[in-house]
Amino acid sequence: MKLGSSNLDVSRIGLGGNTFGWTSDEETSHAVLDAYLVGGGNFIDTADGYSAWADGHVGGESESVIGSWLDARGRRDDVIIATKVATKPDRKGLAAENVRTALRESLQRLRTDHVDLYYAHFDDPETPLEETVAAFEELRSEGLTRYVAVSNYTPERLTQWLEIADAHGYERPVALQPHYNLLHRGDVEGPGNRGEIAERAGMGLVPYFSLAAGFLTGKYREGEPVTSERAGMVSAYLNAPSFAAVEVLREVAAAHEVEPAAVALAWLRDRPGVVAPLASARTVEQLSPILVALDLELSAEETERLTAASDEAAAAQD
User: Start and end of every NADP-dependent oxidoreductase domain (predicted)?
Assistant: First the structure.
């Protein structure tokens, strides 16, 4: 499916690279990437900041692992590679020179001469937006990235980016990467919100946290303590409406003989404006629902049930 107004033909579920070089060592990461391609995927998402949050890591670990895989397999033309700038500790922010330097360093780690999609990962209020937009356009015009994209921008700042691009004759961003899933919808959907702005601008949605930090895999049960390393990330979902939504996921998944995560991804994949939800896999075994979701078809009745459950659960997060 084409990503927004671009010519990038991406698979309907993208593979998040946040685990590569962190909870997945290089060998395991390569196996996950191999299996993803064999299973029909082609859209790999990373960032220069992955995985600076881990002890002893500095950022760039994920890109380096993907780069070693690209070099070993020779599959660069078979994949769409997206990366981001703004969060690597020594490359924070979106000042023009930082953006230019960051991309060149990302290309070295990825062992390629270009990325297909380059994101402004987080807004940088300390840098004039005109400077940032111009820097991204310069990199695009130089061929270091084929297309520009943004993530985590408010509706107001997204609109300003588009206005600046139009005023100067720059190409618009082709994708928006928002936090969006079955339980978290309010800041993407609705009049004047980011999804509507993106649709009007010809941008495709590439949601992250598509599985709500693992909550939508169905591994958590109401009344049971959450002791995993993601306990803090799923705390907002520990309420009755969210557990009820997961129960609907389980029922629909059982009818298809698939995992709940595959159903959650398929539901999100089919939301208006969404091109390719992102999900990560620490092991080849965890990749299974991602591959299933590439082609899983939900009935209209199943979609309606999930949406109704989502309406109640999403309201509990707002």
Answer: 12-309
